[in-house]
Structures are given as structure tokens and as C-alpha cells.
């Protein structure tokens, strides 16, 4: 972040080499935030439910451990008119989860009806917001279908109380590839990964955004940070949980270096976990490369503003055939690295329809390619729908705040289900939404609200809302079987 009052956002335009959103002043952000009109019923629910989801049982019946899929249950949610070939392709995964859980009452195949709202979907299954009843709607939910028909917002709202993952591929064969890869990972006598976490972060001296994410997110995650005023050093998050750490940072974080991570040359096993922090690439609506390139990862090769070409970023098309990614969990902190909505959800003139940024909403191509690699796919990918907000790493009041990332990565590395591992992001979204609503209400009453505080809360809320899991939320690292490198 620059030292003045401007805010630099994540994301580079893949056609111009400039920022997707030009740096903005705090008062501009605050003006947009004041114009937001939150839905009162959703805010009332969020204000009520965030206390419940912070309890050990997260709204589940007393005694049901939320991190145990066998207790909390699992369901797959198909579109009502889903292609029978897609259902057949995923039937082995359904059978696999049924055999694992040993309780058919909490393993379900559910449907999503066209244009159904979140509360309508819950009500059709006789469940009210704020209550999780696994025999009606299990805690772990895998949504299958095109985001045009199962909207991103539906998943975001469910994710506050449930553990949600998404899948959408172009062919039934890709669904089958993913299901087969997951089943093989969970049932094989041995797994291909080593007990290693890799952190990848380009850092450009001319770019405040990558300097921020490299210095204030990746460095403390990989190397540790000072925990308190007495300067007690915390170890890096992977080391804390018994993993080797490899950091590829700054000048070393090239596209070639990224390829080396996933090629695993010299017979070395691939890492169990990969975290990247970078700009995500963005393309204009209607551009021939938008669906295939949106959310691709900018690397250190980028020479600077005004210059950009595919040699500067890593996209789905760049994944080598000889890659070894099966069993990996991948977390991309980058704009559009999880998906792209149809309309700009944040930067638009209050009172006017949000402008279209894509012809239709879609999941990013890179995570889909990770999950369906012919040699065995990744377990799941965590990414961001819409823009990722680097400013949320550092707040005006409290400085760097990365505990949400630390907790999520820690939960992954200790072997908790990936849907549950993201719980801190969803709790944060709930509490920030209610706090932001209160600030906007006070501003509407004419009270003098600090511009920086309002802008920061708005950005932080937007950032927490956008994280999604692409893959089955029940998958988890087999930590007892990971090889030490």
C-alpha cells in the first residue's frame, strides 16, 4: 500500500498491462460503500447467526463434531435438470462417501431448482436459517452446476453456516476424472505427496500490490512473525504443523520456477500444499481469452505497467502434461482466481444497475485444470470470486492482520476437511457485514464517519465474502501418510 490515502487493488488487465481498477482515494471508496443497500433480512440473519457459528458446534446438534464428516454428513446438490451423464460420472463419489459415513440418513443427493433463493432452498428442505440439521441438509455440501444456474451468491450465503464446495466442468468426462482422482487418493495404500508447503509470491518494486502481498502476507505465513510486543517469534504456519517450507519469492518467482513446483523433477514428490499470492489477470467482457485466462497468475516475468503478454503469467494452458499435482491442496490469493461474476458487484454507481464484466458467470479455468489433470488431479483449489483485496491484509487501525489465512492454512495442514478449513473466512464475512451495515446506517443518519474506517470495513467484507472452495468440501490431506522430503 502506498503511503498516501490511495488504495491499490489487485488485478492486471491482460490486454493493457495496467491495473484493472486504477488506484482510488479513500473518500471514493467510502462514497461507494455509503451507497450500498444491504438486504435487511440477510443482515438480520447474519447478525444473529455469527454468534452461533463461533460456537464449537457451529449450529449443529449438540455433540456433533463439525470437522468430522461422518458425524456432520455430506450431500451433493445437482441442478434439477442436470445432464444424467454428469450424475452418472459423479455416482462413484456418492457411493464412496456413503460407504465412508455409514449413515444413509446424513448422505443425500439434493436438487437446486431454477431461480431458487437461498432461504427458499432451505425452506423446501424444512430447515430454517440459523439451524443445521444433518438429517435434512448435511453440513458438507458439494454444489454441482453452472454458476449461471447455481449463482455464486447462493453458495456464499450457504457457506456462512455450511461447508460448501463447487464443481462445474464442461464435460461429464471431467467430472469422472475428478471423482476418480479423489477416490484414488483417499483409498490408495500410499499417496504421492511429501510433507511440504510451498509459498509462491512475485514482488515488483514498482507495484505496491505485489509488494504488500509478498511482504505482509507471504513472508509472515512462510517465515513467521512477531507475535506480540515482547517480540516472541512465531514460526511459519507450515513449520508450526510439522511441514517443510519452501518459499519462492520476489525475483525467483518466475513462470519457469512455478513450472518446477508442479513438475517435481529428480524424482521428488510434489508438495501437499501450494499457496500463491499475486495479481490475477483480467480480460474485458467478450474477449476471446476471458473464460480461459481470467484469474491466471502474474509472475515475476512481468516487466512493468503498459506491457503484458502470456509469457508473464501462468494460465490453465501452461500446465505441463508431466505435472504431478494429485493430492495437492492449492490456495490462490489473486483476483478472479476462483471465478468471475456476470456483473461488477462492488464498483458501480449507487442507484444504477451494476455493469456487466462477463457475458455470464464462470469458474476460473486454472483451478478446473488442476482438478482434472490426466495424471491425477488436485484435491481442491481455494480461490476468489471477483477481485481479491490486498488492502484487507493491512488495516489502517491495526496493521497487518493475517490470522484468517493462518487459521485456514493450519486447518488444512492438520488434516481437517477443506470445507471446514475456511470457516474463519465465513465467520469474518458475517461479523464484518453486520459491522459495515451499522456504519452505513450511521452515515445515513448524518453522523461523521471516518472515511478510512468505512472504506476499510467495506473492502474487508468484500474480500472475506469472495473466497470459495472448488472441489469436494469433504476432502482432507492424509497427514499420517505424507512423506518427509
SSE topology sketch:
Blueprint: E1 6-7, E2 12-13, E3 24-25, H1 26-34, H2 40-53, H3 69-72, E4 74-79, H4 84-101, E5 107-112, H5 118-124, E6 140-144, H6 152-161, E7 163-167, H7 172-187, E8 194-201, H8 208-223, E9 225-226, E10 233-234, H9 237-240, E11 244-249, H10 255-263, E12 271-277, E13 281-282, H11 290-293, E14 297-298, E15 313-314, E16 329-333, E17 339-340, E18 362-363, H12 365-371, E19 380-384, E20 394-395, E21 399-400, H13 403-413, H14 418-421, H15 423-444, H16 451-465, E22 467-471
Parallel strand pairs: 2-13, 4-5, 4-6, 6-7, 8-11, 8-12, 12-16, 16-19
Antiparallel strand pairs: 1-3, 9-10, 14-15, 17-18, 19-22, 20-21
Helix pairs in contact: 1-16, 2-15, 4-7, 6-15, 13-15, 15-16
Record the strand order, biggest sheet: 11-8-12-16-19-22
**Head-to-tail CA distance between termini:** 37 Å
Structural class: alpha/beta
Rg, Cα atoms, Å: 21 Å
> In which range does the helix fraction lie?
25-40%
Number of strands: 22
**Uncertain stretches:** none
Q: On the 0-100 scale, what is the average pLDDT?
A: 87
| Biggest sheet record | 6 strands, mixed
**Estimated share of beta-strand residues:** 15-25%
Number of domains: 2
Mass-distribution shape:
globular
Number of H/I helices: 16
Can you describe what's shown?
This protein has helices at 26-34, 40-53, 69-72, 84-101, 118-124, 152-161, 172-187, 208-223, 237-240, 255-263, 290-293, 365-371, 403-413, 418-421, 423-444, 451-465, and strands spanning 6-7, 12-13, 24-25, 74-79, 107-112, 140-144, 163-167, 194-201, 225-226, 233-234, 244-249, 271-277, 281-282, 297-298, 313-314, 329-333, 339-340, 362-363, 380-384, 394-395, 399-400, 467-471. The protein has 2 domains: 6-36 and 193-481; 40-185, Rossmann fold (3-Layer(aba) Sandwich). It has 16 helices and 22 strands. Helix 4 links the parallel strand 4 (74-79) and strand 5. It is globular, with a radius of gyration of 21 Å. With 485 residues, the protein is an alpha/beta fold. The two termini are 37 Å apart. The mean pLDDT is 87.
Amino acid at each position: 500500500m502506498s503511503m498516501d490515502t490511495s488504495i491499490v487493488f489487485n488485478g492486471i488487465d491482460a490486454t493493457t498491462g495496467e491495473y484493472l481498477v486504477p488506484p482510488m482515494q479513500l473518500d471514493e471508496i467510502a462514497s461507494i460503500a455509503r451507497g450500498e443497500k444491504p438486504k435487511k433480512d440477510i443482515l438480520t440473519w447474519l447478525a444473529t447467526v455469527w454468534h452461533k457459528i463461533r460456537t464449537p458446534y457451529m449450529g449443529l446438534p449438540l455433540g456433533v463434531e463439525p470437522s468430522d464428516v461422518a458425524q456432520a454428513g455430506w450431500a451433493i446438490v445437482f441442478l434439477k435438470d442436470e445432464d444424467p451423464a454428469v450424475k452418472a460420472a459423479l455416482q462413484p463419489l456418492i457411493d464412496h462417501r456413503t460407504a465412508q459415513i455409514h449413515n444413509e440418513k446424513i448422505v443425500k443427493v439434493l436438487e437446486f431448482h431454477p431461480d431458487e433463493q437461498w432461504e427458499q432452498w432451505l425452506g423446501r428442505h424444512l430447515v430454517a436459517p440459523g439451524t443445521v440439521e444433518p438429517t435434512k441438509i448435511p453440513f458438507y455440501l458439494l454444489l454441482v452446476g453452472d454458476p449461471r444456474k447455481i449463482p455464486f451468491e447462493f453458495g456464499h450465503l450457504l457457506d456462512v453456516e455450511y461447508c460448501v464446495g463447487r464443481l462445474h466442468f464442461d464435460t461429464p468426462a471431467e467430472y469422472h476424472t475428478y471423482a476418480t482422482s479423489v477416490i484414488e487418493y483417499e483409498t490408495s495404500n500410499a499417496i504421492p505427496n511429501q510433507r511440504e508447503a510451498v509459498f509462491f509470491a512475485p514482488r515488483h518494486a514498482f507495484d505496491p500490490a505485489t509488494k504488500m502481498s509478498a511482504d505482509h502476507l507471504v513472508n509472515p505465513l512462510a517465515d513467521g512473525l512477531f507475535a506480540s510486543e515482547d517480540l516472541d517469534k512465531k514460526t511459519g504456519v507450515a513449520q508450526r504443523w510439522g511441514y517443510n517450507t519452501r518459499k519462492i519469492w520476489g525475483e525467483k518467482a518466475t513462470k519457469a520456477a512455478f513450472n518446477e513446483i508442479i513438475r517435481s523433477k529428480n524424482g521428488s514428490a510434489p508438495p501437499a500444499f501450494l499457496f500463491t499470492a499475486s495479481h490475477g489477470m483480467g480480460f474485458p467482457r467478450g474477449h476471446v481469452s476471458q473464460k480461459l485466462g481470467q484469474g491466471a497468475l502474474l509472475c515475476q516475468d512481468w516487466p512493468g505497467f503498459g506491457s503484458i503478454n502470456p509469457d508473464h503469467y501462468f494460465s490453465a494452458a501452461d500446465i505441463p502434461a508431466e505435472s504431478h499435482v494429485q493430492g495437492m491442496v492449492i490456495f490462490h490469493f489473486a483476483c478472479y482466481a476462483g471465478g468471475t461474476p456476470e456483473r461488477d458487484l462492488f464498483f458501480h454507481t449507487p442507484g444504477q444497475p451494476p455493469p456487466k464484466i462477463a457475458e455470464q458467470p464462470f469458474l476460473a479455468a486454472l483451478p478446473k485444470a488442476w482438478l482434472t489433470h490426466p495424471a491425477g488431479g488436485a484435491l481442491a483449489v481455494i480461490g476468489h470470486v471477483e477481485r481479491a483485496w490486498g488492502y484487507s491484509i493491512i488495516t489502517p487501525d491495526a496493521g497487518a492482520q493475517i490470522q484468517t489465512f493462518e487459521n485456514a492454512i493450519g486447518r488444512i495442514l492438520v488434516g481437517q476437511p477443506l470445507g471446514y478449513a475456511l470457516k474463519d473466512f465465513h465467520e469474518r464475512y458475517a461479523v464484518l457485514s453486520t459491522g459495515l451495515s451499522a456504519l452505513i446506517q450511521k452515515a445515513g443518519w448524518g453522523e461523521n464517519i471516518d472515511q478510512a474506517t468505512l472504506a476499510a470495513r467495506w473492502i474487508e467484507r468484500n474480500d472475506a465474502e469472495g473466497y470459495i472452495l472448488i472441489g469436494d468440501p469433504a476432502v482432507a490431506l492424509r497427514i499420517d501418510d505424507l512423506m518427509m522430503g
